[in-house]
């Protein structure tokens, strides 16, 4: 099975839950990326999912092409006037040669055939184009008891069911070959104040949770949810959830 088919199989029916539960990136991330670009005519959001990040990018660029290999993700994307959504693999983009000022892959590059993707990025890049492979790492909960229980679930219980590609997310894509002039970036994070239902809804979008359920291990997630509820207290109480942002950022 190709990388594109693997990605599609993981996310083919996940679009609705992704749109509802997945955290969105902070506006300052897009502001920073836009500030690195010489021009702001066209940006491409590769592996865009349901388009939350694409909508943020559209505030800074005249046009955005948002692509994903999963039709379900694209179908659940909210329309944005200056964003064109398309079902396309990362390695075959419909953008014209020398036309793109920013190429972003947010929490998606670990599914790509990187050499082919880099070749395509070079083809569509305008002079000075910026390429950002963005990821967010393992979250933290502001309550130590909840956080400790979450870490046990993430690493020890559901950990074996993550696809091998997940290791690249956990290390911030540090092991990726990145043959471009690399740029530095400031420390940033995603911050959310979530109820218990929102947090567990997010956890249930994970490919590892779905894989465990397929192998008859749904009880892992159910037991975790029950124990976390006991530690959380009032399920409507909102707790701060934080994800550190990591990037491989460069100029093509």
Automatic annotation (TrEMBL):
Residue span(s) of domain Methyltransferase type: 44-132
Annotated InterPro entries: Diverse_substrate_MTase (IPR051052), Methyltransf_11 (IPR013216), SAM-dependent_MTases_sf (IPR029063)
Molecular function per GO: S-adenosylmethionine-dependent methyltransferase activity
Tagged with keyword Transferase: yes
Keywords of this entry: Methyltransferase, Transferase
Domain of life of the organism encoding this protein: Bacteria
BP terms from Gene Ontology: methylation
PANTHER family, per database record: METHYLTRANSF_11 DOMAIN-CONTAINING PROTEIN, METHYLTRANSFERASE TYPE 11 DOMAIN-CONTAINING PROTEIN
Family per record: Belongs to the methyltransferase superfamily.
Name the UniProt record assigns to this protein: Methyltransferase domain-containing protein
Taxonomic source organism: Pseudovibrio denitrificans
């Amino acid at each position: 099975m190709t990388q594109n088919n693997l990605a599609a199989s993981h996310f083919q029916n996940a679009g609705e839950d992704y749109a509802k539960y997945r955290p969105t990136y902070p506006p300052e991330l897009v502001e920073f990326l836009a500030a690195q670009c010489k021009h702001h005519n066209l940006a491409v959001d590769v592996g865009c999912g349901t388009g939350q990040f694409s909508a943020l990018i559209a505030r800074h660029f005249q046009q955005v092409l948002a692509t994903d290999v999963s039709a379900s993700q694209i179908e659940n994307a909210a329309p944005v006037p200056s964003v064109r959504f398309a079902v396309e693999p990362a390695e075959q983009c419909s953008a014209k040669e020398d036309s793109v000022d920013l190429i972003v892959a947010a929490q998606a590059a670990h599914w790509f055939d990187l050499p082919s993707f880099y070749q395509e990025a070079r083809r569509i890049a305008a002079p000075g184009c910026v390429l950002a492979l963005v990821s967010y790492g393992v979250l933290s909960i502001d309550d130590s008891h909840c956080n400790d229980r979450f870490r046990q679930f993430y690493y020890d219980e559901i950990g074996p069911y993550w696809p091998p590609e997940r290791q690249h997310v956990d290390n911030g894509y540090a092991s990726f070959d990145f043959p471009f002039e690399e740029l530095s970036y400031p420390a940033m994070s995603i911050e959310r104040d979530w109820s218990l239902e929102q947090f567990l809804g997010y956890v249930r979008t994970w490919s590892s949770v779905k894989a465990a359920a397929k192998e008859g291990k749904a009880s892992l997630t159910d037991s975790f949810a029950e124990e976390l509820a006991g530690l959380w207290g009032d399920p409507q109480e909102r707790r701060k959830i934080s994800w550190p942002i990591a990037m491989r950022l460069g100029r093509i």
